[in-house]
Write a structure and sequence with these properties.
By secondary structure, the chain is α/β, with parallel strands linked by helices. The protein has a single domain, classed as Alpha/Beta hydrolase fold, catalytic domain (Rossmann fold), CATH 3.40.50.1820. It is built from 10 helices and 8 strands. The protein has an 8-stranded mixed beta sheet with strand order 1-2-4-3-5-6-7-8, sandwiched between helices. Helix 6 packs parallel to helix 7. The longest helix is centred in the middle third of the chain and has 19 residues. It is globular, with a radius of gyration of 19 Å. The chain starts with 20 loop residues before the first strand and ends in a 5-residue tail after the last helix.
Length: 302
């Protein structure tokens, strides 16, 4: 039986990290007209304190939920070299019924509305997902609803998380990889008032005319004379930048162009950190990208 809206469902049937506690619920979104699976990874000391914690929203939650369960507790509890402040991680994913279509459905949530697809992207999708997936991928990519997905997070999910958990309001982050990284850039350039920390890992700005360029310029005009402290951490994989796949090389070039625009025309209050992850490709860099962001944006003050 499908659980009712917002009902907690026990997470069972898998090995668990003893330093991490994860709760699960599902929520219906009026903005997206869809149902989402939410996993909330709690700090080890959450149940024994009454303090409020920083929060981190992670898109592609079906990937980053298990990654958090594998390594987040080690970061927070045991790393004496680069100590991390304890934080809540909210993993936004697909329900069990939707999981087989994750690679195509995620485009609806994460890609900017009106995005175009470079000609050489079809061949890449065909090789990776199969010929039958190309048409669906293209349709979802070009009819994407990142604006609706952002509204879901900010106006539906975040209030629910704040109702259920103790959240530090001025320390809320957003992390995404690939299309999720592009979504992080979209949230930042849209001028989100929820997030103060953004992780854009291998962000999928595949088109030269990606909307993030224009959105950033509009944001500069809207925020002229004002300052809001935010932190953007960009990471890319070395084998994307220097590897044999043109799709990834062009993506890296566009991200470097975007970084150049931010450095040349900085937004007041924006701190930018970067890292090139050695020996990793687009398909293998997920964990290192997550770790790079957490260390950059959730490092415990000395």
């Amino acid at each position: 039986m499908k659980p009712s809206t917002n009902e907690r469902v026990p997470a069972t049937g898998r090995l668990r990290n003893p330093e991490l506690h994860t709760e699960y619920f599902e929520i219906d979104s009026a903005h997206m007209g869809a149902r989402f699976a939410i996993g909330v990874s709690l700090p080890a000391a959450y149940r024994t304190t009454d303090v409020k914690y920083p929060a981190l929203y992670a898109t592609d939650g079906n990937v980053f939920g298990p990654i958090a369960e594998a390594v987040k507790g080690e970061f927070e509890v045991f790393d004496a070299v680069v100590p991390i402040e304890p934080f809540l991680q909210i993993n936004i994913g697909f329900t069990e019924e939707q999981t087989p279509q994750t690679n195509t459905l995620r485009q609806t949530n994460l890609v900017l509305p009106g995005s175009t697809i470079p000609d050489f992207m079809d061949a890449h999708v065909r090789k990776r997902l199969g010929a039958e997936a190309v048409a669906t991928f293209r349709e979802l990519y070009t009819t994407s609803k990142a604006d609706h997905f952002l509204a879901f997070i900010e106006k539906e999910l975040h209030p629910e998380i704040c109702r259920r958990y103790r959240v530090q309001a001025d320390a809320v982050g957003l992390f995404g990889y690939s299309a999720g990284g592009l979504f992080s850039l979209y949230a930042m350039t849209s001028g989100s008032q929820v997030f103060t920390r953004y992780g854009a890992a291998s962000a999928g700005a595949f088109a030269e005319d990606s909307q993030v360029f224009g959105l950033y310029e509009q944001l500069l005009q809207r925020t002229a004379g004002t300052e809001r402290k935010t932190h953007l951490h960009l990471s890319i994989n070395a084998k994307e930048l220097f590897g044999p796949v043109r799709l990834y090389r062009m993506n890296m070039i566009n991200l470097l162009r975007f970084h150049d625009a931010m450095v040349e025309r900085p937004m007041p209050g924006l701190q930018i950190t970067t890292e090139i992850l050695p020996n990793e490709s687009h398909s293998s860099g997920w964990l290192d990208a997550y770790r790079s962001f957490v260390r950059a944006c959730y490092r415990k003050p000395s």
